[in-house]
Task: structure prediction
Amino acid sequence: MHSPLSPVAVIALLLLLLVKVDASMKKANNSISRTFTPTERYFFDVNGDPIDTSNGKLNYVNGYYVWYGQKASCPGYNNGNCGIWSWTSPDLKSWNSNGALFNSTDPINKAACTGSMGGCGRPKIVYNGQTQKHVLYSFASRLSAPGTIPVFTSDSLTSGYTFAGYSHVKGVPQNWTVEDLGLSVIDGTEYVIWTQYDYTETVGRGALAGYSSIYPPFIQTLHLQKLTPDFLNGTGTMCLWFRGTCDNCNQSIIISYRSKNPSGRFTRQIVKSSFTCGGQVDGVATVPSPNGKSGSTYLLSADAYLSPPYSSSASTQGFNVFTLSFNEDGSIKPLSCDPSIKYTVEGPEGKSDFLSGIYAEATDKAPNMGNYTAANDVPYANFYQTWVSSKPGNLTTIGIIFRYASEEKLLSPYYIWETLASVSVGLDDTLQNSLLTFKVPVGKTVKEGDLLGFTLNSGSLGQQGNAPIAYFINDESEPNHKLYAEARGHVSEEEDLSPPIKLLPGRELKWYAIVE
Result:
């Protein structure tokens, strides 16, 4: 979907990115096409691990498709303990994990990221063509200090960032805090967009003393400021008023401000999106059309906080990805959460190499892309995921695995399968707050055509419970892959003498097996 109004600059609010086509990006020999749907909320790298980031952004930077944000696969990610990670892709389908952008435990970096509202969260990255550096702006709120933004730079998009200093934005009163921000390069000029919150009414004087309104609970302003060539200082400011959102919030509205130029008069719009389909906007990426064609696609990404596997928001959540379409006046058309709606982006092939990983090379596996949902509230006493081995050799890695004689015997009473490997998983803080992939070594010989499977259970016989590990489940399955489930409280034959283990047609857990 291409905008007929490419000269119009769009400010997509919440994490606030001002976007416009950069003609220098319209050079590519190969093109890619990627379709997103509202039901595809989880994305995986070439090793089968989920992209477990929060408060980041799916972006297009200097010819790279990159997904970056606060890594969520460890406790306390909201305080920056896991650092900021990135994933890159040549086609928005195959993602490679690049690790941390910088060492968050380094004393200099740790000091730069120390703030009352989190450590270097909600990162934004642009490429500075004048210095030929990648520039990372981050967020570290300081309620009692002048407004500053930690700035990191690197020759590489995905690693080696070092602290370059603070961006001293202008016009921030004492005790106001610089928070949500965005970066943009428009016609070769760099801009920072940020919000200011006045906590003096709510925090300083005290809401309980009657000095705060019911809503909004504080005053918030929106600022757009031109940057100096080194990205470290503002040169002037203009102010727009709006009502803000919060970290780890679900069902947030999308607000956009649009203008034909950064210094012009802005028009405010609340974009209809069913509260971002149960999420919160991260930002908008400008993807140039492939092969030098005019126009661009605006790709909006959002954290989907209604889809974490655990009740706490401090865990891996899903994502929503949309392409924006525009009316003749430049306003954004409504976004739909209808599962049948497709959002397609066509763009140049990214600079990242096509890489192969463990999952890509796995012998048997579930699809790496699909309409996966994540849960740990096991609706059944046990899951049984089965498949037919497609290769003989040594089975090295899989989940809790067994081999069985036939489907008839598997569903028969008193049948005991051949256990090839098993493991118990305890509930600890690391697993509870993330979606770390769990791998089980096997080391057993299998033949082509062997009937194999693994079981996932809640550890409570015949009862519903919370499994110590979460699982992904897809609404599509590969041929010769079957998923069975044992209903809660059912440990004997049904009234019609059918087994309590039931086939879940067309469904499949996320898994892979390696046979060498």
